[in-house]
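Incident log entry.

Two folding requests arrived from the same account within the same minute. Monitoring flagged them as a possible duplicate submission, but the sequences differ. Recording both here for audit purposes.

Request one:
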Amino acid sequence: VVSVGRDTSEPLADACLLGGLLAYRHRQFALAALLIAYGVFTNEPVLVLPVALAVTRLWQMRRGQARPGLADLAWVFPGLIYLLLQVVQQVEVRGTPGGAADASANLTWPFAALVTGVARDVHRMSWTHLGTYDYNLIEFLVLLAFVVAGFLVLGSTTAPLHERAAFVGFVVAELVCASGEFWNSVFGDGRTYIDAYLMAVVLLLATP
């Protein structure tokens, strides 16, 4: 996992995300729950993964394709940890819960901030040297290539259903609905979208 900057919480959370996926694939559900919970605790966007697990597991149960069991630890435990964190924040800070504050600051209408941010980068790009807006565009184009490739293999990849759902969830949460807090930033903040990139790579590696 490559990340720009000194903050180690995001690469650590992404390592936990990947470790959790691997543990889940090998049916090490307790380990998967611990890793995913730690990822959620250190970087809230990782919450998309347990949500994807919950949706797919409940859908499979509804269709009679699965039964409640240890596999559900991977989404129940991280969800409980997140709720506990919100309660602690509410009691200690006595203000808007962290989850609600993050959602209002970090999410917006689909494509609203994305289109504005990319248009600004194109308008301010340089043809003589690599500036901060040029780096933004390079990061965006690379990310876009992997995301498009991820969607193209969505039906043919051998990756489990919950991983495909997590990929879509991360794209929606971290790209499509991300606010100007991210899209108006400059060089170095492309790491914000790394979860969508990582899940795209996971799908591609699992494609024949």
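Request two (distinct sequence, not a duplicate):
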Amino acid sequence: MNEPEFDVKAAHKYFAPRLNVECWNLLDKDDRTEDENRRMLMAAFASCYHWIHTGSNVNQQRGEWLIARVYAALGDSESCLKHAQRCMEWTKQVDDQYQDFDFAYAHEMVARGYAMTGNQEEARKYHALAVELGNKISGEKDREIFLSDLAWGVWPGLDDSTTG
């Protein structure tokens, strides 16, 4: 295979965050079309793929979280849980780049995946841990964003007193 006429690592570094932003723009959009849903999912996977080549454990963890979030938005419970669990596995890797909110988000998404698949016991356990970790986020703005994300969407089978 011939070498490309551009810097491959620089290309990965260029595309990873841009695809992340594209994914979030679609996630935040009301009334997405089927094509936009497909593009949103592809953007999440593509961003994660590019981070594999240029990022760190924290980028992998956040990439898996985003994929799980997209699947949650699409109502695909099994895929949501699978990627939430991958996110949690990355979270267990030692990396000094992790922020306090990364731990809260990992627990939130595992809780959401379990809630969507009907495992209420595990959903409640991980949700309680997410709330506990979320309340300990040191940055006020980061904590507000996390708590807002935690309140997003439907928590099937969990009552309002559990989900905030």
